[in-house]
UniProtKB/TrEMBL annotation:
It holds the Pfam family Beta-lactamase2. SUPFAM superfamilies: beta-lactamase/transpeptidase-like. Its EC number is 3.5.2.6. GO terms for molecular function: hydrolase activity. PANTHER family: BETA-LACTAMASE (PTHR35333), BETA-LACTAMASE-TYPE TRANSPEPTIDASE FOLD CONTAINING PROTEIN (PTHR35333:SF3). Belongs to the class-A beta-lactamase family. InterPro entries: Beta-lactam/transpept-like, Beta-lactam_cat, Beta-lactam_class-A. It catalyses: a beta-lactam + H2O = a substituted beta-amino acid. Keywords: Hydrolase. Residues 41-256 form the Beta-lactamase class A catalytic domain. This is beta-lactamase.
Length: 298
């Protein structure tokens, strides 16, 4: 297990570093989310200013596909130990067929692939087949959950296909987390503190390339670098983002559950609200780089 810098992280997580609540942003966000037809949690941290907002930030929510970030960490632990290589070849067969998002479901039987492509499919296209496969290759949900525990992320867990978690899987689905913890995981990757700087850097590069870029990412100038991951199921939508803004990095996570609007369109209430939250965060911290997003292209 190559998760390091545990003690500094505990200090960060406990608030010892002197984080201050950004009261103005807190008020604005609470006003924005008033009347949402569901449960919502938000965590925002401006890393340079050390300002934060936490609204239901320690409440547990379903991850949906955001669980693929902990799976990424599990895979890279195996890469760091030499048990896996990015260039390693694998053979897809149709016994792995699984629906939902992604491209591997359209692969021909016996098609060749490699670990790097599988990671890219999991993160860029949120591919479900590669995600399940990579969860297995990483040692399974229990191994990933142990890594999350070691990082201090006690509520961030893989539930699906994980021994002893059947009942909680029925409640939260594939995975669970809190807005604060998932933001912290992104922050640790950004700071090179997951496994080590070299492997964190590579994870960061994979997380840059997002096919699903119509929520928060559409609220920032396209010339600004971001890493992100979305998650969507009928009753829950979520997104975690770290944006390399001109005035300093900003990490935030918006998670929802028990949503009344379960539609699968760009006008879904939770997705529209997530875009508004992202725009509010950007314009609050980057007043000199105000960006008016374009209408959604259908």
């Amino acid at each position: 297990m190559r998760v390091i810098f545990l003690i500094p992280f505990v200090l960060i997580f406990s608030g010892v570093t002197g984080q201050k609540v950004d009261k103005k942003l807190d008020v604005a966000l609470k006003k924005e989310i008033a009347g949402f037809n569901g449960d919502i949690g938000i965590y925002v941290h401006h890393l340079k200013k050390n300002r934060m907002v936490a609204i239901n930030a320690d409440t547990v929510f379903p991850t949906a596909s955001i669980v693929k970030v902990p799976i990424l960490v599990g895979v890279f632990d195996k890469i760091a130990s030499g048990e896996l290589k990015l260039s390693q070849e694998f053979i897809y067969d149709t016994s792995r067929l699984y629906g939902g998002s992604g491209l591997m479901q359209f692969y021909k039987d016996s098609a060749k692939t490699d670990l790097s492509t599988m990671i890219s499919l999991m993160l860029t296209y949120s591919d479900n087949i590669t995600s399940i496969w990579l969860q297995q290759l990483s040692g399974g949900g229990m191994a990933i959950n142990k890594m999350m525990d070691d990082l201090g992320l006690k509520n961030t867990k893989v539930n699906s296909r994980t021994e002893g978690r059947l009942e909680i899987w029925k409640k939260y689905g594939w995975g669970q987390t809190t807005p604060r913890e998932m933001s912290k995981l992104f922050q640790l990757i950004r700071e090179g503190k997951v496994i080590d700087a070299r492997h964190s850097d590579k994870m960061y590069r994979y997380l840059k390339n997002q096919f699903y870029n119509g929520r928060s990412l559409a609220q920032f100038p396209s010339t600004v670098n971001t890493i992100s991951k979305t998650g969507s199921v009928n009753e829950a939508r979520g997104e975690v983002v770290l944006v390399n803004a001109p005035g300093g990095d900003i990490v935030f996570c918006v998670l929802t559950k028990n949503n009344k609007d379960q539609s699968w369109t760009d006008s879904n209430e939770a997705e529209v609200l997530t875009r508004k939250i992202a725009a509010l965060i950007w314009n609050h911290y980057e007043p000199g780089h105000t960006f008016k997003s374009y209408p959604v292209i259908e």
